[in-house]
Design a protein that fits this description.
Length: about 240
């Protein structure tokens, strides 16, 4: 395995990644496997921060379609990300990886509030930091939170672990003619409206030249491969 290509990264995990084959909730076996992937990265010495979504529990936008007021639904989604962050922290600490959870909304009984300088200090001390509760504001996705935190901690790359092996010209599950794009520019993502991350997240990364690597989390060892700069998935730069 090659040496790491980055000193500090932000890993974006979807909430759906934690539920495995379940219709909703958390699959402890899957969380343990993801924790082992992160442990392998941690052992390389790469400073690792994580933003986790909450789609396995509730999505604010989906809740609003079911009659829940949008802002209330978004705050419910933020609390879902806190649950996921605590589950991931538990899995990592069982593997001997020191971990801190920081939240964008104040829940001091279970996690630290997000403080940028403290987060950076944790990373410098070799702790994995999990950022939960999105940006703390409704109407913003956890993709936007990932881009924001990546910029705030001066991450060298944003790694987005998904259930597909990269960026395609269309949804490969619906369009058999979809072509994989191994390297694509921020501007092309925005102009072609490719559904990688929301436009706010793409723009944030573009403005500060943070590359985005999109890859399949389902393949064992892919997180470390992405950290080592191997050619997997797709890169936005």
């Amino acid at each position: 395995m090659s040496d790491p290509a980055y000193k500090r990264i932000l890993l974006k995990l979807s909430g759906e990644a934690l539920m495995g084959a379940k219709p909703f909730g958390i699959d402890e076996v899957v969380v343990a496997r993801i924790g082992d992937e992160i442990r392998a990265v941690h052992e390389t010495g790469v400073q690792t921060a994580i933003v986790v979504g909450g789609g396995n529990i509730i999505r604010g936008l989906a809740a609003s379609h079911r009659g829940i007021e949008r802002v209330t639904g978004d705050y419910m989604g933020m609390l879902g990300t806190v649950i996921n962050a605590l589950a991931l922290q538990d899995a990592l600490e069982k593997l001997g990886v020191p971990t801190r959870v920081q939240t964008a909304i104040d829940i001091r009984e279970v996690a630290e509030p997000f403080i940028r300088r403290r987060a950076i200090r944790h990373l410098e001390k070799g702790r994995v930091v999990i950022f939960a509760a999105g940006t703390g504001n409704p109407f913003f996705t956890t993709d936007s939170a990932a881009a924001l935190r990546a910029n705030e901690i001066r991450a060298e790359a944003l790694l987005k672990a998904t259930n597909v092996d990269g960026i395609y010209s269309a949804d490969p599950r619906q369009d058999p003619t979809a072509v994989k794009l191994e390297r694509v520019s921020y501007q092309e993502i925005l102009e072609r409206n490719l559904q990688v991350m929301d436009t706010a997240a793409i723009s944030l990364c573009r403005d500060n030249q943070i590359p985005i690597v999109v890859f399949d989390l389902g393949v064992a060892g892919n997180v470390r491969r992405a950290v080592c700069g191997e050619k997997i998935g797709s890169t936005v730069s």
